[in-house]
Amino acid sequence: MNNGKDYIKHFDEIFETNLIDKISLKNFETLKLIFDTFGEDLYKPTPKYENIRNDYIEISSKLESTFTDEQKELHKQIYNLNGLMTEELELHLFIFGYILGNGLKLEVKKELIKDEE
């Protein structure tokens, strides 16, 4: 991703907007830092999440105990790839929220200017 521009372009394609030249993600690295900090330090899992996670660990452990060494390695690779996909999805949603907020801000400013005229 090139400093978040790809996220704005993707947003425009999905929502049929034209924000690519109106919104800047020049602070993309700061947004990424906030996202990483939130994910690692600030987020406290809900009880529902903890229950799902515990079930996942239990089932995964049972399954992995039946694997050969090669299957264990493949399972580990799948687990890591799944983590990367989840991280990208969460970042994507976080950035979309930021883009949406900025898009709304632009609309409100436009309306305020129109009201002042």
Sequence-ordered SSE layout with sheet pairings:
Blueprint lengths: L4 H11 L12 H15 L4 H18 L4 H48 L1
Q: Biggest β-sheet, characterized?
A: none
Rg measurement, Å: 20 Å
Distance between the termini: 40 Å
Would you tell me the structural class of the helices and strands?
mainly alpha
Shape: elongated
How would you classify the quaternary structure?
single chain
Our estimate of the beta-strand percent is under 5%
**How do the helices and strands follow one another from N- to C-terminus?**
HHHH
**Proportion of helical residues:** over 70%
For the secondary structure, the number of strands is 0
Nearest-integer average pLDDT: 86
Low-pLDDT sequence parts: none
Task: Determine the number of helices (DSSP H or I, runs of at least 4 residues).
Answer: 4
Structure report:
This protein is mainly alpha-helical and 117 residues long. The protein is built from four helices and no strands. It has helices at residues 5-15, 28-42, 47-64, 69-116. The protein is elongated.
